Amino acid sequence: MIFLDTDVCVAYLRGNELIKAKFRKFEPGGLAVSSMTAAELLYGAEKSDDPDGSRMRVEEFLGSLNVVYGNENAIRTFGYVKAYLVRAGLAIPDADILVAAAALSRSCPLATGNVRHFSRIWGLQLQNWFEAPPPAPRPRAAPSARRARRRP
């Protein structure tokens, strides 16, 4: 299972083709969001120009994913991670730490475009879904007949 950060979900909802292609690679149940991500998406819907329509799209979207609520392990992970980041002078928003804690507590990777914040969290497996895949290697040309004759 892969956890999705809010930025990935928003890109999907806005029709980003790169993100939509990555979604299609997963079976139902293979993608999840934390309850914090769900809350952020619903907040965004409420403050949009079309709250009713946006809320309906977000709720339909969330219905297609696993929404994972915090458990004791995630709560403890949040406390540990936040304390470490503050001591190290690397603090990030609590919402990001809650999202990371949900993924860490289940040993799952997090798909995000916010690598700058999340890379501060030791042990969190990150996937930058906004990076285009590298181009496929070009096949090597077959040696020419003239070159082939020179070989002993």
Report a brief summary of the structure.
By secondary structure, the chain is an alpha/beta fold. The protein is 51% helix and 11% strand. Helix 3 runs antiparallel to helix 4.
Characterise this structure:
The protein has 152 residues and is α/β, with parallel strands linked by helices. It has one domain: Rossmann fold (3-Layer(aba) Sandwich), CATH 3.40.50. It has eight helices and five strands, in the order βααβααβααβαβα. It has helices at 6-13, 17-23, 35-46, 51-63, 72-87, 94-105, 115-118, 145-150, and strands at residues 2-4, 31-34, 66-68, 110-112, 126-128. Strands 3-2-1-4-5 form a five-stranded parallel sheet.
The total number of structural domains is 1
Portion in helices: 40-55%
Distance between the first and last residues' Cα: 54 Å
Extended strand count: 5
- What would you give as the CATH superfamily? 5'-nuclease
On the 0 to 100 scale, the average pLDDT is 90
Tally of helical segments = 8
- Assess the beta-strand content as a share of residues: 5-15%
Biggest beta-sheet profile = 5 strands, parallel
- The helix/strand series, from N terminus to C terminus, equals EHHEHHEHHEHEH
Low-confidence segments: none
CATH class: Alpha Beta
Shape: globular
**Strand order in the largest sheet:** 3-2-1-4-5
CATH architecture: 3-Layer(aba) Sandwich
CATH fold field value: Rossmann fold
Computed Rg: 21 Å
